[in-house]
Amino acid sequence: MAQLAPAPSPRGVPEATVARLPLYLRALTSLSDRGVATVSSDELAETAGVNSAKLRKDLSYLGSYGTRGVGYEVEFLRHQITREIGLTQDWAVVIIGIGNLGHALANYGGFASRGFRIAALVDADERRSGEEVAGLKVRHSDELEDVIETLNISIAVVATPAHAAQAVCDRVVAAGITSILNFAPAVVQVPEGVELRKVDLSTELQILAYHEQRKNGAALALTAEQAVELAKAVRG
């Protein structure tokens, strides 16, 4: 079933839509792996965990409206979303902070298949310099700016201790990086024009604990003081 190539999606796609595109891509990849050729908006929405009206609205920003009575071609829509979110390019990534989390990120095999190439590993501990992790030698943090320039780094992943996160972000921004993924348990500030995404595992666990407690009925037994303290913890 042939489809015409869509017009380029308009600028200014809502942030909420951008945040959901990877969900659709993951769902489409799963469908493709199962040999599914076409999918209805209802089926795709269910697989992605969103409602179908929202999915159709999101995909309309890509110029994709499917085919009435048939739905969407899985591979065609995968290509559209992959192109829209920039995964047809090779994004060089540096991981800064090669502790337990940094090691795990460096060894994660899913980055390469999604267009992200771990190009360098950097750590402030001199004892780690030269250590090989996931086929790369760890470079000392004194070399950070040189690493960014010579390897044409596009994205910095910060996995340092909390106290070092702001200084590291300042350095990578000064070196020209405009996209940062922060795993450090710290709130950092970046200038306008720099995209900063934060992954706070402890906060997510606290939120899960809150909901688990509510499901178990334990929340009903909280004193007023305990409730205030719990709310503070969830907010981080």
Oligomer: single chain
Spell the H/E element sequence: HEHHEHEHEEEHEHEEHH
Strand content: 15-25%
Count of runs of 4 or more consecutive helical residues: 9
Report on this structure.
The protein is of the alpha/beta class. The protein has three domains: 15-84, Arc Repressor Mutant, subunit A; 91-199, Rossmann fold (3-Layer(aba) Sandwich); 202-235, no CATH class. Helix content is 43%, strand content 16%. It has nine helices and nine strands. The chain has helices at residues 15-33, 41-48, 52-60, 74-84, 100-107, 144-150, 162-174, 201-215, 224-235, and strands spanning 38-39, 72-73, 91-96, 116-123, 132-133, 136-140, 155-158, 179-182, 195-198. A seven-stranded mixed β-sheet has the order 5-6-4-3-7-8-9. Strands 1-2 form a two-stranded antiparallel sheet. The chain starts with 14 loop residues before the first helix and ends with a helix.
